[in-house]
Amino acid sequence: MHYPNTAEVTVVGNEESVQNIVLPPIVGTSETITYDDGTAEALNYMYSAGNGWAVKMSLADGKNRAVLTGGYYKFDGGDRPDPGGTEFLVEVYDSTGPNGLPGEKIAGPLEAEAIRSETDWTFIDLSGEEIIVEGDFYLAYIQKDEYPYTPAINRDTSSESSGRNYSYIDGEWKQTSTSDGNYMIRAEVAYDEAVPEITSPLNNSYTAENTITVEGQANPNKEIYLYKNGSEVAVVSSSEDGDFSAEISLTEGSNTITAKAAQGESLTRPSNQVEVILDSAPPIVSINSPQDGEEFNKTSVTVQGKWRKKI
Ligand SMILES: [Ca+2]
Fold first, then answer.
1. How remote is the CA of residue 106 from the centroid of ligand 1, in Å?
2. What's the mean pLDDT in 197-222?
């Protein structure tokens, strides 16, 4: 697993250009998120292309961000369906749908090739795709071709249902019956510990102040680069505890703030993205009730009015 890196390459017409780009390795840990027991007792396939299944993946305790570096899929090695096929699509969704269902598609459809085997898993290398997952996410198997020209995904029915299995039929995600067991899809993630995290302000904050203090966590004693709407606006150092803090001036409207840390001669991936909306125009308030000069013989009164922003 590596950090992304960019380099300028000069290309001369009609000549082959070769340039090696050094990718510093990720400092962190890797994990394969697994909810099946590794042995298949059943299989499934859909009749229509475009349908499929997904497993809801949760990051390790205390982790809220990771790079999805690969997916493992277990396809059946038998002759169902006949003749079957090997092409399928990989898709990744976040969990922002209703009740935590798949929401936004983070990646895909990515073309993939299934190994149909009684023993071997199909590993899809996603490390070049820069798929960042934040919290729960779904790794999906989408059927590229219709029955019977498709591989069959295996199910582990000998262990208890994880409650994390979902079907995608005619554009709709639904949790599968617990009797389906566990669809055999696993996710390989890397926790890139060098990437800073912005802890304050919270995403989608509103302010009327022209400057804001951005606070976060990073590795100790690192240079932290802060960006506003894609432009570098501050460089600060993290403390021995890894804390950092920077004053940033805001522009009217939306300010998208991210941070990167120095990592060798390069920079890390960007941190979580925090949007701060500067709304410095005072609201205009008009009171409809009570009327001016109106008198009451009670100790409380309901005031009704409207406020609107100047545009
Ligand atoms: Ca099993």
1. 30
2. 95
Assigned CATH class of 28-192: mainly beta
Strand, helix or coil for residue 224: strand
- Catalogue the long-range contacts made by 104-107 (C-beta closer than 8 Å, 24 or more residues apart): 106/131, 106/132, 106/133, 106/137, 107/68, 107/131
Give me ligand 1 centre to Cα 124, in Å: 22
Q: How far is the CA of 72 from the centre of ligand 1 (A)?
A: 16
Name the architecture of domain 197-278: Sandwich (2.60)
- Neighbouring residues of 41: CB distance < 8 A, sequence distance ≥ 6: 155, 156, 157, 158, 181
Same fold yes or no, 28-192 and 197-278: no
Beta bridge partners of residue 221, listed in sequence order: none
**Distance between CA atoms of residues 233 and 246, nearest Å:** 10
pLDDT tens-place string over residues 259-311: 999 988 889 999 999 999 999 887 777 777 888 877 777 778 787 777 776 54
Measured in Å, residue 29 CA sits from the centre of ligand 1 at 27
Ligand 1 center from residue 229 Cα (angstroms): 49
With contact defined as beta carbons under 8 Å apart, do 102 and 45 qualify?
no
pTM listed for this prediction: 0.79
First CA to last CA distance, the chain: 48
Q: Where are the domains of the chain?
A: 28-192, 197-278
Rounded distance between C-alpha atoms, residue 101 and residue 290, angstroms: 47
CA 296 to ligand 1 center in whole angstroms:
75
Distance 78 CA to ligand 1 centre (A): 16
**Quick one: which H or E segment has residue 124?**
strand 122-125
What spacing in Å lies between the alpha carbon of 112 and ligand 1's midpoint?
25
Q: For residue 278, what are the β-bridge partners?
A: 207, 253
How many Å lie between the centroid of ligand 1 and the Cα of residue 290? 71
